[in-house]
Amino acid sequence: MEHNQQPTQFQEMDSGEKRLNELGYKQELRREMTLFKTLAISFSTMTLFTGITPLYGSSLQYAGPASLVWGWVVVSFFTCFVGVAMAEICSSFPTTGSLYFWAAHLAGPKWGPFSSWCCAWLETIGLIAGIGTQAYAGSQTLQSIILLSTGTNKDGGYFAPKWLFLCMYVSLTLIWAVLNTFALEVIAFIDIISIWWQVIGGLVIVIMLPLVAMTTKSAAYVFTSFEMGVDSTGVSSKPYAVILSFLVSQYSLYGYDAAAHLTEETKGADKNGPISILSSIGIIAVFGWAYILALTFSIKDFSYLYDPSNETAGAFVPAQILYDAFHGRYHNSAGAIVLLFVIWGSFFFGGLSITTSAARVV
């Protein structure tokens, strides 16, 4: 009598799950994320435009273009060291808790619980605040799009009042919350769209804006000019003004820990998590500097950017730079509106990714 026996197949344990077992940590989430999907979410959390665009005007006003341009280089340089350290720890402790879990283990049995508690709450507060800033800046961009689409500030365009601005703000946060109720595969798919949206859109803006602008600033102005707006900022100390101008870089180069929050859902997380962290920092550092240079070279009139009577009501400096460039060459604002929509998309995707990270922490 023949017995047809089916060979038993053993599935090799994922390297990330194996590392969790070594730590005595039980695997709770399904591993569905590939390296590219994890990178997409991490990149979308940092986002190319969302840190630079809302703070560009204020940072430029504190100490001028040179401080803004070189500040990005300095902050990017030191952020790389933070990223390398975080990637190394992520490889050793590939857990969804990430930062507060790491703090608990690295601080030792005496200080571990307190360190973990502090880290968890600080991170939670930071992520919740990050959702708010994304929604605010996204609403600000949408406000400029509406203004330029209905005319300009000088031609009777519609400048969204505070109540409508608040409605846009709340709507964005609710949309992100609803989308995060779907499976992670849906979020990952949206973030794959996000990474291509920002890379392609970033290339278009970085290349097109200086080419379209009829008047551009010299390299000497961009790389060596320090201009302090004492009357508008109230800051008369040069060192302090330079430090404040670094805020745009510090705000932009954060969020790369998003990859760490997804390690329990990432295949080969002990390797792919760190790769996602370092890759996100590298891409944003290069593209972000190029975006800052494109905006700064394309400035037409520095003081006019902040004039409340200009075409964008002095409310959003990047929008005025885009308007000056396209209106100067084509005598309409269509190009500026399209590029502002690309930037707004970055805020939408970024807010969604930060909400995803916040949900994992909570």
UniProtKB/TrEMBL annotation:
<feature type="transmembrane region" description="Helical">
    <location>
        <begin position="35"/>
        <end position="57"/>
    </location>
</feature>
<dbReference type="GO" id="GO:0022857">
    <property type="term" value="F:transmembrane transporter activity"/>
</dbReference>
<keyword id="KW-1133">Transmembrane helix</keyword>
<dbReference type="GO" id="GO:0016020">
    <property type="term" value="C:membrane"/>
</dbReference>
<keyword id="KW-0813">Transport</keyword>
<protein>
    <recommendedName>
        <fullName>Amino acid permease</fullName>
    </recommendedName>
</protein>
<dbReference type="InterPro" id="IPR002293">
    <property type="entry name" value="AA/rel_permease1"/>
</dbReference>
<feature type="transmembrane region" description="Helical">
    <location>
        <begin position="69"/>
        <end position="90"/>
    </location>
</feature>
<dbReference type="Pfam" id="PF13520">
    <property type="entry name" value="AA_permease_2"/>
</dbReference>
<feature type="transmembrane region" description="Helical">
    <location>
        <begin position="163"/>
        <end position="189"/>
    </location>
</feature>
<keyword id="KW-0472">Membrane</keyword>
<feature type="transmembrane region" description="Helical">
    <location>
        <begin position="334"/>
        <end position="354"/>
    </location>
</feature>
<keyword id="KW-0812">Transmembrane</keyword>
<feature type="transmembrane region" description="Helical">
    <location>
        <begin position="195"/>
        <end position="213"/>
    </location>
</feature>
<feature type="transmembrane region" description="Helical">
    <location>
        <begin position="277"/>
        <end position="299"/>
    </location>
</feature>
